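Standup notes, protein team

Yesterday: finished cleaning the Perkinsus marinus set.
Today: Thiamine-triphosphatase structure.
Blockers: none.

Input for Thiamine-triphosphatase:
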Amino acid sequence: MSATTTAAAARLEVERKIALGSATELARFLSALGPPVRRVVLHDTYWDDRKMTLVRQDQWLRLRNGGWEMKIPAISRGSHTGSSSTYNEVEGEASVKQFLFPSGEGTLRSLLEGDGFRVFAELVSHRATYHAVQDGRAINVDVDSATFPDDPVPYSIVELEVLSEASIGDDDGDTKVAASEAVIDAFMERMGIAGKTVRPRSKLVEYLARHDEERLVELAKTCSKYRRIVCELMGSDWVEEHAPEEGEA
């Protein structure tokens, strides 16, 4: 299984998750963007093996509405820079298969199942997408309401996304990420929401917080980004007991 960033990556995604203080503030923000350009229902299943090989590397494999996608940290020191998450995205069965099983034969699903990969999370999201432009760069504003199997409580989140060509190496990644982060900062300032938002958990982390404590432990071990999130969810004492940092055990 390949462990390096692949040339098959389609694009670099810099995404900032935000939550506004009230429904009124959210409605005011969205009304300034005009009507949504798209509404869609997203059916996502996330895959990994029993050893959680991908999660341990902060890599995320999903089947979305029948199409395979994979997120890989854009730079070697991790997927979190500043206030945003940064991933190179690999899209399509052929590209994902080339990344995970460069010499494998058969369908991606058959190779995954043969290696013990199974679905570990399932989400359904109702998404409204708005488009904006800042400093000549396109911004997608996605408003999601997600539900989980056998869980009646939905989870809502807003994501600001700027896309660019996939990064090649840390220097290139740093440059592209910084440029996209500056676009998001300027957009939030122009829209009057800078300093008025909080950073919520991602939909997947929210799912794990509710339904998969074991994988939360692995996330806490993976990197400081997830360790902070898990500390917020479960408390520092719980994290230190279940996922001590190297040298603490």
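Follow-up from PR in the comments: The beta strands are 11-20, 38-48, 60-64, 67-73, 80-81, 84-91, 118-134, 137-148, 151-164, 197-198.
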